[in-house]
Amino acid sequence: MTLPAMFLNRYQQLMAPAEFTAFKQSLTQPATHGFRINPLKASLSQLQESVAQPVPGIANGYYGQIQGQSIDHLAGWIYSQDPSAMNVAQLAAPQAHERVLDLCAAPGGKTTQLAALMNDQGLLVANEINHQRALVLSSNVERWGLTHTVVTNNSPEQLAQALPEFFDCIVVDAPCSGEGLFRKDPSASDYWSVANIQFCAQRQKKILTAALTMLRPGGRLIYSTCTFAPEEDEQNLSWLLDQPQIQLLPLPALSKMDRGRPAWAQQRMAVQGALRLFPHHYRGEGHFIAAVSKQGTAPSTRPAGKSLKRLSADQVQLWQQFQTTTLTGVSFKQLQPQAEVLWAPAGIFPQSQLKIIRNGLRLGQFKKKRFEPDHALVMALSPTQFQQRFDLTAEQFAHFVHGEALILKNKAYAPGWVAVSYQQKIFAWGKVVQGQLKNFLPKGLRIQ
């Protein structure tokens, strides 16, 4: 990788000679890989991946590279994530009773980590302005088996208009110039420029302004980037601290983490409360993390959403029939039909103002005289909540992930829906029909 000369010149001027040499050398090394285990599902003893190298200070975080087509990934037991990035959600410390917003959430690493730390309780809103990236985010939320997460596809300004002073905790992992990811994606350095840094810094201020509108008094905001640029890091934190009611929350530094640098923000000493993760010190890619609070004690506001629509008598009958024949010990506090789709909603929101892609758990769809369960439901339940489960052999798994139906030699399975697993890890629905196991693994998840 050839780094831009102006990029190197900037940091040669900003850093002492010895540090610049180490910094430059670190950018020629391979990227660091990591993954997190899903505590809502996974059993360490059944993992294929090695957990010999835990990431310090990170719950369920480990160093290592995973395979995207492995059963552990397909079943939502693991998530690939840069070790540095894991620190953002960990430092946000979301609580199970809180309302939390991941404002720039795609592809979903921080969302799934926040949800795990909340034990899939409370309310987590994961927003992404780009529609295609929001669909990827929603898919990862589904794979992780989350039930209390809402995925939205709005601009920060739209979200702020709908949900003022609503959240206890907001994470803004802002789009940035990406200098910290040059090792991971060398082509990103081709687009580097000072003009882009300045553009990103201004865009980040707009995002943060919307975030502050949505933060309740007494709430906290965690701001992070994956760049080294002072304009996007210390200088934006300094700007943030100048906003009304905003106060710094100094972050604890683990070994090999650096403090924010006052010299990079017109000698604003308060920025030392932020953290810098440099690849020549910390084992991970480049990252900046800061936290602030909004002074005051007012409770979070409640959005004006419509009351839940009731199920028709036919829909109630079909859902109860499915529950009785397929599930055990499963109940939901609320059920909400939207057209023919049945949801267990995570919250009630003003639909006219928000573009909601996923509100809680999508249970399935009412079709002609039957209820067809959604993939999200099989991913969210535990093995003990299914009346029937079919564990595949290695040969059967290879056929099933290609989308094939299987001939059942064991006639003990009753006709109807079954949870399909491999190595005891559930990853799809199947349906027993006339001696066959019909395949309901979504086409987008099949291996061609």
Percentage of β-strand residues = 15-25%
Distance between the termini: 32 Å
Outline the low-pLDDT stretches. none
Estimate the mean pLDDT confidence. 95
| Approximate helicity band | 25-40%
Describe what you observe in this structure.
The protein is α+β, with helices and mostly antiparallel strands and 448 residues long. Among the domains are: 304-382, no CATH class; 388-448, Roll (Archaeosine Trna-guanine Transglycosylase, Chain: A, domain 4), CATH 2.30.130.60. The chain is built from 12 helices and 22 strands. Strands 4, 5, 6, 7, 8, 9, 10, 11, 12 and 15 form a 10-stranded mixed β-sheet that branches. A 5-stranded mixed β-sheet has the order 18-20-21-22-19. Helix 1 packs antiparallel against helix 2. The longest helix is centred in the middle third of the chain and has 21 residues, at 194-214.
